[in-house]
Amino acid sequence: MLNSPLFLSLASVFSLIGLGLVCFAISTDNWTEIDVNRKEILNAFKREPELSLRLQNAFNHNFLFFSRNVGIFNLCFPNTVPQDIGSFNKMGSPCIWNNEFMVPESKKEHFTTNETYRHYAAEGTIVAYVLGIVFVVFSFIVGLFGCWNRSKRCIMVTGILLMIAGLFMSLAMLMWHYVAYAERYTLDMEPYYRSWEPVSFRPVPMHPLGPRKC
Question: Which residues span the membrane (predicted)?
Fold first, then answer.
């Protein structure tokens, strides 16, 4: 009963829907939204000239002072773009590549323990997603042969492959949430939240993993 063609058909339909949603999510750049009130920062500069002298260059060039949408591979700017940042256009929005997955070994040597955990969790997120997609595609191939040959063994293997794919997808989401938690609560170096200048964010209602808008 559990390896019947009906269950295989249902699994295939829902797997295709899930795979499409996962691929769509990976291609987007709205996993985290950060809203920076640049007008308020300018007002703070007027009130405190010393602050203006210290942060004026960063205000124009450092992406931390700009509203941005963060995805797995890209960091996009919905409004103003930092000067000389080398952005490219993606679906009408200026973006830059997220270079956190290509960290030089010389820089890794100076990572703290928490930075190392966060870095490998971020890389593991990508690996787990890719493996999940590979197992889904492989299960479709095995399932196709199972339907064609009416093989109960192939149908059972298809179900097992889909469960493994689901485990990898779940692992990817767990690691992504760990990365978000580490960036919000444990890392205190640039470019993470605890290193931001107080003038660059304002108190907002808290998301379970930190402020959605800062």
Answer: 126-148, 160-179
